[in-house]
Amino acid sequence: MQLRGPKAKKIGHPAEADVNRRSTAAAGLTFKFTVLWQRDHGFGATITVSGHKVPGSWRLSFELPGTQIEYVTGVTWDSNSAGNGGTASQASYQIGDPNGNYSDGSSAFGAGTGDGGNEVGVGSARSDPGSLPVISFLITGNGPPSAPAHCHFDGATCTFR
User: Fold this and answer.
1) pTM of structure
2) Distance CA 71, CA 130 (A)
3) Is there a contact between 141 and 43 (Cβ–Cβ < 8 Å)?
4) Which of 13, 19, 129, 140 sits a CA distance of 20 to 30 A from 82?
């Protein structure tokens, strides 16, 4: 005997909603890797993320195949076990209040107040007329400065150009 009643609403796997919700985290953002210098076996590069809606709190994970990352400046950095990548997140001194003001006196939407009020530090978010909010930080490493791979921004897949 089969019981019949109102059809149950089909519910997907609980993690499915979270994955679908997070998949838009990188939408509308541009990820750039720019080599600043190269000598001997070392290099220096910047990583920038720009777009109209760069979040105040974020996490960016990636690897630089064939390299050994030595220093990352302007963000909080958690290196992976291989040393060729890791996860960058907003530095604690850049965490702002609801008005976008950071604990170091700077602002998410302007310049700092420390040295005359004109500086914009590495890793800061900033918005001037005609520009987009930006996340920016510096990397130095050994090996060829290859394009970042296995990129995830707040859990969503991203691609560098």
Assistant:
1) 0.65
2) 32
3) yes
4) 19
